[in-house]
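Please supply some protein, with C-alpha cells.
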Amino acid sequence: MTADGPPAEDGPVLAGAKVTPWPADHGNSWLRAHPGGLITATAFAALAMTPSLLPRDWLFQGVVSGISAAAGYGVGVVGAWALRRWSRWRRLREAGGRRLRRRAGAWGWWLLLGAIPTVLTVMLLVSAGWQREIAALVGIDRRTTAGWLRAGPVLLLVAVVLITLSRIVRALYRLVARLLRRWVGLPHRPASVVAAVLVAVVVASVTDDVLLQRALTAADAAFRAADSLTHEGVEKPSSATRSGSPNSLVSWDSLGREGRRFVTGGPTPQQLDAVTGRGAAERIRVYAGLDSAPTPQERADLAVTELERTGAFDRSVLLVATSTGSGWVNDTAVSSVELMYGGDTAAVSAQYSYLPSWLSFLVDRSRAEQTGRLLFDAVHARLDQLPQGARPRLLVYGESLGSQGSEAAFSSLADIRAQADGVLWVGPPHSNELWSTLVARRDPGTPEVKPVYADGLVVRFAGNAGELTQPSTPWEAPRVLYLQHASDPIVWWTPELLFQRPDWLAETRGPDVSPSMSWYPIVTFWQVTADLTHAQSVPDGHGHNYDDLLLDAWAAVAPPDGWTDDDTARIDAMLNP
C-alpha cells in the first residue's frame, strides 16, 4: 500500500478510468497528485472541521485536519487502485478514445483544482461558526471567523509533510522490488510482495525501536527527573501528622513531586478553627511514593503503618484517595472533606507512576488498578481489627485514571456497600468496568450522559450541582456518586466510536455539547481522540474540570450530621475566597 498506487501503473485513476496526472510531467512522480486522493483528502479534512466536544484554536484545528487530509489521500489512492484492479469499472478503460480521456482529464483537473480550495474555505467559515457555538457552551467568549482561516495553510503544510513521508516509503518499496528482480531474479509479483513485507518490517522497526522507544525512554527520563523536583512554595512539614515530617516513617525525598504537594496542602489551622469555632484537630495526610518502598504491596503496608503512627484510625473520617498517573491527588477534593469535618480527618494515597495521566492511561492502567486495590484492602483490613463502633467513616475517592484504580478495589455495588461508607469517583474513563456496567444497565428512557440506575437508590451520576438531587427518590447510604460532564472526552472516548454510534450522540446532546455534533464512522473517533489532548483547557464545570463541584459532591455523599446548604456555602467561601 503506497501513496500513489503500485509502480507498474503509468497514471492515476479516478472512477476506473485513466486521467492525466497533475502536473502533466510524467518524469517527476514526486510532484504528481492523484485526483481520487485529493477528493478524499478534502472530504476527510472537511469532516475533521465538524463539531466535536471541545472548542479548538486555529492552529490545533489545522494540525487535526492536516492529519485527516493525509489519511484521506491514502484512502482515496488505494480505493481508486482497488476499483480499477478488481471491479467491473475496469472495463471502462477500454471505452472511448485517448483524446476524449485526456480532454476530460484536463477539464476535470481544472474543476478539481478550483473546487478544493473553495470547499475548504467554505468549511473553514462554517466551522468558525461551530467553534463560536461550542466555545459559548463551555463559557468561553471567542471570535474565530477571521483568525480561523489561518488553519488552512497549517492544514496544507501538515498534509504535504505526511504525504511526502509516505512517498519516501513508496520509493523505498520500489527500489527494493527492483533490486530483488535484478539481483535475485524474482518474478515481478513475488518481488513486489517480498519488497512490501521487507519495507513494512523496516518501517515498523524504525518506528517502534528508534522513534517510539527512544521517545518513551526520553519521556520517562524527563518525567522521572520532574518527579524528583518540588513545587514552588512547598516545604518539608514539621507536623508529626504528615508523611515526610521528621517523625515520619516515609522520607521527604521519597514522596515524589506530587506526594510532597499532597502532604503539605490543604486548609490552614485558621480556616479549620473558623469552621469549628474552637481549636480544630490537626488533620492527617499520609502518602507513600514510588521510592518509599520497592513494591506496591510494601507501599500499601507502609501507608497503613503511617496511618497507625499518626493516629488516623481514631479520627472521624478516613479518606482513601487513589492518585492519577503522576501521583497527583486533587487537593480540592481532600480539603473539602477536611473542612467539612473540622480537621478530624485522615487522608491516604500512594503513587504508582510519575508519568502524566494520558501516558499512564496507555502504559500504567494495570498498576493504577493494582495500587488502588492493594491500598484500599490494606486499610480496610486494619479497620476490621477495630471494634465496630470505634471505626472511622471510610470514604473512597478517585479522579480520572485514579477513579479506575479506585474502582478496582470493588467487584460490584454490593461489594462497595459492604466495605465503604461513601464513594466519589470523578471523570471516569470509559474503560472503568463498574461505571460501564452501570451505565449500560441504566433505567430505560434515561440518557447515557445522565443515567439513572435503579431509581438512584444507591448510585447516582451528576454533571452539575442541580443534578445531585436527582432523581427525587430516596438515596440510601452508603452513597456512590460519579461526576461526569457531557463534554468530557475522557469519559466518552472508546474504540467503539470507530464504527458504532454511541447513545450520547443518538440521544439529545448534553447541555454543553453542540447540537450540531454528529457521529461519523472513524471521524468521530478521531475527533474525540484529538479532544483528549486538551480536555482541561476549558473552564470549570466543563470538559475534564470538576473542581467547582467537588464540595457539593461530598456534601451529597457523606455530610456530617446536621449539615445544611448554608454550611456548604460557608466552606465554599473558604475554598474560593
